[in-house]
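Long-time lurker. I teach an intro course on protein structure, and each term I like to show students one example going from raw sequence to a predicted 3D structure in token notation. This year I'd like something fresh instead of my usual example. Would anyone be willing to generate the tokens for the chain below so I can use it in lecture? Attribution to the forum is fine with me.
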Amino acid sequence: MAKDKTIRDLVHHMRSELRDLYPERELNSLIELVLTGITHLKKRHHLHIYQDQTADPEHIRQIKDITKQLKLGKPIQQILGETEFYGLTIKTTPAALIPRQETEGLVDWMISDLKDTRPGILDIGTGTGCIAIALARHLKDATVEGLDFSPEALELARENARINGVDIRLMKADILQAEIPPIKKTYQVLVSNPPYVRESEKSRMHRNVLEYEPGQALFVSDKDPLLFYRKILKFAADHLEPGGLIWFEINEAFGPQMISLLENKGYRNIALKKDIHDKDRMIKAQKS
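-- Reply from a regular --
Happy to contribute to a lecture. Here you go:
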């Protein structure tokens, strides 16, 4: 008679199948995320305490299926259909970039600086809506809007706003077009995490990014790596109020160039900030 599989067996199965594809720390996080997402064991220490508990047959089937998808390089966030961002549940699909932990630092910076204010905020290239939704949840008196060129991304952002119980206005527009459609108003705050990875950097990226995430949300030409920032600052000339604030997530290689770009556009009080990996990832400036 076959021995019933335990939680320990499931951990061993995932580890043996995936150990050659993921670094040890990342593999441990994946295993924890999958098992707590699929089983009734919702905390890390439960996996240890109950490791000899018999696994549910349906859970065994699901975990084996997920392991197969991980071996193909599919991101775990897309397999599970959601991820956590700034304490919020954000639904994920191939229509938009998966929210990154680094971007939580940008949101945290904004919330810290904007608390006790009532700003009008526009998130340019909103994708899943994660930045806009986190700001709306934590800045109760703010009015938050999001803009994206992708109808699929906007639909995803609407669903995420509904899931998280926030009211944000979402608009379809392409910031690269000469004329941005009908935005008549100005804002006190602009924020964007635009495409900033150079095409030449693709060779250093994992296949789960290259094959499963939208390239148009990630990559820019090496010939014009600051394209989106220039276009957004052109938009800001008419749509960011004097004295208004602008935040960007940036490529770590272009901190000095971003400072120069902002200075040349007349911005002041420019601050460059490092992310959790000690890389120059965020920049803030004030319109003169």
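Some talking points for your students: The chain has two domains: 7-72, 82-287. DSSP finds eleven helices and eleven strands in the chain.
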